[in-house]
Amino acid sequence: MTKLIIQIPCLNEADSLPDTLVALPRRIPGIDKIEILIIDDGSTDGTADVARRFGAHHVVRHRRNRGLAAAYQSGLDAALAAGADIIVNTDADGQYAGEDIAKLVAPIVANEADLVIGDRGVGRNEHFGPLKRLLQRLGSAVVRNLSGTEVTDAVSGFRAISRSAAQRITITTEFSYTTDMLIQAGRKRFKIVSVPIRTNATERPSRLFKSIPQFIARQLMTMGRAYATYNPLRTFTLIGGGIALIGMMPVLRFLVLWAMGDGAGHVQSLVLGGALIVLGTLTGLLGVLAELIGANRKLLEAALGHIRRLEQDIATLKDRTPPNVGWNEKDVSNKEAA
Fold first, then answer.
1. Domain that holds residue 133
2. Assuming Cys at both sites, which of 4, 6, 190, 239 could form a disulfide with 114, CB separation 3.0 to 4.6 Å?
């Protein structure tokens, strides 16, 4: 039986959430069971109560606002614990058409994708202004290069992920999960597919950022951090090489002047250049160290994936075991290990 859980991160969405929940599909080809999961990220307007009243099967509550990235990760963890085979993320403001969830999950149901991104057609979307369309295209191009993927709408929050892929994803940023997740997925060789989707106009401004410059700055920081995490040697080598190259310029200047017999008064160029070359070399060596730490991180991620699968399998066995049948977690662990 294939189980789909649709998760919706929320922050004070009591007014818009009912329409979004009503628009969600109740039947999808290839899906046997559909459940709804709400992540209430510290709302103060009764969002969780509205969610329960309109049929949400699961509600996860943060006692205070922790941000979209943390809400998404909480949703993934809760959905996996609830036995989801496929997890779809959508927004509470109704930006995405609920009917398109069937298009999102189809490649995963057909075993053709690990991660599916809803493409809003940013270059021609009538709900986006000219500046937003331009920035979306530029941002997606940067993410494509950093992640090694062909995703055309990198910051789309309308996406579906398989159970096995979700078990290998851990969001590390505190801002938005979209680009961090894509860079991780690309470096972990997930099969990623984009499908065209429809969007609706939204009335309220984004709660994720206060201005476009702030959004750009924070996304650049997120992308840079994620890329450096998964490509440390290349990152530090490029930075160190750039510093050393700049350091070569005053050294070459000194050598030229020295060859012309005028080097005595320009020793400061040699000192400055030498210091920059040493700094560049040390930066490159930090890249080697970071690469070794990265290898250890891969082992930790693999171990975390195994732990998640064991915990979820144990939870599933607990749910399926009749009340009058006794067992203990040690026995289950031994059976799983066997």
1. 3-209
2. 190
